[in-house]
Amino acid sequence: MKNNQSTWKTCYLVLGVLHVVMMLVIYGSMFQTRTWAHSYYTDSQHNEQAHWDEFRQAVTEIREDENAPVLRKVPKSEEPPTAILFREHFLMLLAAATIFPSILFWATGLMFVGAILTPNQIQLETDEEDTKQPI
Question: Do the domain assignments include residue 128?
């Protein structure tokens, strides 16, 4: 394979396009999960708020029991943590979903391209006089 600038540029272009596609898939799944979490935790059919309140009440009762094997802290939040995470900290989730996969993608992609496009033999520089064949 020729080791010239256009080959390197083409590989970088392909990596860039693959990165954009990967990020679109990640962002799409993040927004879809956020939509699901909002509808799931606000829907009366699932009644997750009641489950969360029951859990908090059970922890409170266990804390009052002197024979309990483990004393758990009563959660301070009035709402389920997942609902709060996707409502109030969604930008932080997007930042993390952008930074970590991007670093991993580019580190792996650049190492792969470098391994493929770098010649596997060392080419020694020789004088032109040494390489001339007698006629």
Answer: no
